[in-house]
């Protein structure tokens, strides 16, 4: 639903704004007489006007560092290239910064290089690599206890969480970030004292409110979103931040769309979209204009707008989840027109989009392990440190610390106990010790007591064996009524036979067949282990991942994801 590259750019510019203060312009042949702070000021003065001169200044900065054997100064010089001249140079010189300062004790290096790589890979829509380098930078920032870097990474991780579909996780981080901006004096000081870009606090504060409002919209919490949009509109007008004002008006249109006020949504979006600077934001705004037209029954206008959205997204190479709805509407339109070629084009686009979005969703686990867990551990360490500092003044904190450790230890014990149980269940499942048999046979004396004629009873048994042998149970549409109709009997007879022969009802019987089968296939077919959980559920005969997961756990005592993970290890 959103792109926050502009936010990440402003944050990274802010984080690394420690390079210099002020200087005076001078002839090029006197550049070597300038100190580092003066060169820094000159670089940012010339950059908007003459990039060749700006590069010459950067080269002098690097050369002075090289002459003195100062790798950190050289890295700061390469930063100009890595930040200001596009992704190709950005990635190249970020690697140079990392190589120069890999073993540096400097508080900002080599973290700077990794954050630059994270930023540029995000810019190039390579989210897997973006996550990778942001998390490496995050580990360095934790190690060096660099508050500037830690607070700059927070909105970047929130953006990536939103990209992977973890809207709740993104919302939590956005709320924390805005709260810190408004209540923590350290944050305000950092954002207010950028030597190269001026006071960034107002812009950062408005960005944080805007991103939080979009997170609430992602969660479809419209009333909460509107609170921050109103605040953002007021703040934008107060500080004459016109670009941000139109961004908030656009967000208001999206909120009104989810509130069901489609005409109001159209008014806000039409007012704001022509003034949005970011082309991707324009595409999203156009999408919601098209959806609003569709909701009020103006299908021709909706179609025209969706064609524009398709064209713009192709030109920008911008893929986002809502684009699927655009493709589906265009497929339906061309189906009515009986234009088979156009249908195939958009069906192919849907398949490619689904593949891309599925890859993005799988990245959430990487973020969780790389950011959430270390972040929680850091918070825990900070809490413990505070408790120790206050111990002499308040003995109650000591008991709280002990209780926390006990709870943590209990949690660890519970976790490892649970893991041991899972391993035992996995071994039993692997050796078929807990496989539920489906081969019970009913004697003639039992058959005669269930109210089903013996001849019909035997015929149903025979058909059930064929049903199992042919694996017809993997059809997700199988029901007791349909199977009875296929067997040319009634559902009451079929249900009684299954209860008599298997000792379970039809639903339990179906679950056992499916889970036994998918377990056997996972053991034997290695390629099946690479399937997504949605695809695996379909292979087993289930319409939803939830119903498949529940049935698998109920029968085996472990989850299918755990079973697959252990099979892969083996």
Query: Residue share in helices?
Result: over 70%
Largest sheet: none
Q: How confident is the prediction overall: mean pLDDT?
A: 80
The strand count comes to 0
Radius of gyration: 31 Å
Please report the number of helical segments. 28
- Residues in β-strands, percent: under 5%
Oligomer: single chain
Could you give the order of the helices and strands? HHHHHHHHHHHHHHHHHHHHHHHHHHHH
Shape annotation = globular
- Terminal CA distance: 40 Å
Stretches with pLDDT under 50, minimum 5 residues: 5-28
Structural class: mainly alpha
Task: State the main characteristics.
75% helix, 570 residues, mainly alpha, 0% strand
Characterize the structure shown:
The protein has about 575 residues and is mainly α. It is about 75% helix and about 0% strand. It has helices at about 5-15, 35-45, 50-65, 70-85, 85-100, 110-125, 125-145, 145-165, 165-185, 185-190, 200-220, 220-240, 240-260, 260-270, 280-295, 300-315, 325-335, 340-360, 365-390, 395-430, 445, 455-470, 480-485, 490-500, 505-525, 535-540, 545-555, 560-570.
């Amino acid at each position: 639903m959103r792109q926050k590259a502009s936010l990440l750019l402003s944050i990274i510019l802010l984080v690394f704004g420690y390079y210099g203060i002020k200087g005076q312009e001078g002839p090029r042949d006197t550049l070597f007489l300038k100190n580092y702070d003066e060169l820094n000021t000159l670089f940012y003065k010339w950059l908007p006007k003459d990039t060749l001169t700006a590069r010459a200044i950067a080269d002098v900065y690097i050369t002075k560092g090289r002459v003195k054997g100062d790798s950190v100064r050289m890295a700061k010089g390469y930063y100009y290239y890595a930040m200001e001249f596009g992704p190709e140079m950005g990635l190249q010189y970020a690697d140079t910064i990392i190589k120069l300062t890999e073993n540096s004790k400097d508080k900002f290096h080599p973290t700077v290089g990794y954050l630059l790589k994270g930023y540029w890979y995000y810019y190039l829509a390579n989210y897997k690599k973006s996550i990778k380098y942001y998390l490496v930078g995050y580990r360095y920032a934790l190690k060096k206890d660099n508050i500037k870097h830690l607070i700059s990474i927070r909105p970047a991780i929130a953006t990536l969480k939103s990209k992977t579909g973890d809207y709740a996780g993104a919302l939590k981080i956005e709320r924390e970030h805005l709260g810190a901006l408004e209540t923590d004096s350290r944050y305000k000081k950092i954002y207010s004292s950028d030597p190269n870009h001026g006071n960034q606090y107002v812009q950062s504060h408005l960005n944080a409110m805007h991103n939080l409002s979009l997170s609430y919209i992602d969660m479809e919490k419209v009333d909460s979103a509107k609170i921050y949009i109103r605040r953002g509109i007021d703040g934008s007008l107060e500080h004459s931040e016109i670009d941000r004002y139109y961004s908030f008006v656009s967000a208001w249109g999206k909120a009104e769309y989810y509130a069901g006020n489609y005409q109001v949504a159209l008014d806000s979006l039409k007012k704001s979209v022509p003034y949005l600077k970011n082309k991707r934001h324009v595409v999203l705004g156009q999408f919601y204009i098209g959806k609003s037209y569709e909701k009020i029954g103006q299908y021709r206008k909706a179609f025209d707008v969706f064609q524009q959205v398709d064209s713009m997204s192709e030109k920008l190479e911008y893929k986002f989840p809502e684009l699927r709805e655009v493709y589906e509407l265009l497929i339906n339109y061309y189906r009515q027109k009986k234009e088979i070629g156009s249908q195939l084009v958009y069906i192919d686009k849907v398949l490619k989009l689904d593949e891309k979005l599925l890859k993005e969703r799988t990245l959430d686990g990487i973020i969780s392990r790389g950011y959430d867990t270390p972040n929680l551990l850091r918070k825990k360490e900070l809490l413990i440190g505070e408790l120790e500092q206050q111990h002499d003044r308040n003995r109650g904190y000591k008991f709280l610390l002990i209780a926390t450790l006990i709870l943590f230890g209990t949690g660890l014990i519970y976790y490892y106990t649970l893991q041991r149980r899972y391993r035992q269940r996995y071994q039993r499942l692997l050796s078929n010790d807990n496989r539920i048999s489906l081969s019970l046979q009913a004697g003639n004396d039992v058959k005669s007591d269930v109210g089903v004629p013996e001849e019909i009873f035997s015929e149903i048994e025979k058909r059930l064996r064929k049903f199992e042998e042919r694996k017809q149970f993997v059809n997700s549409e199988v029901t007791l009524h349909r199977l009875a109709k296929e067997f040319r009997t009634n559902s009451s007879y079929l249900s009684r036979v299954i209860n008599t022969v298997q000792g379970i009802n039809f639903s339990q019987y179906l679950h056992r067949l499916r889970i036994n089968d998918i377990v056997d296939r996972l053991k034997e077919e290695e390629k099946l282990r690479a399937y997504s959980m949605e695809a695996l559920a379909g292979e087993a005969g289930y319409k939803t991942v939830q119903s498949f997961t529940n049935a698998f756990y109920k029968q085996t005592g472990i989850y299918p994801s755990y079973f697959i993970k252990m099979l892969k290890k083996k």
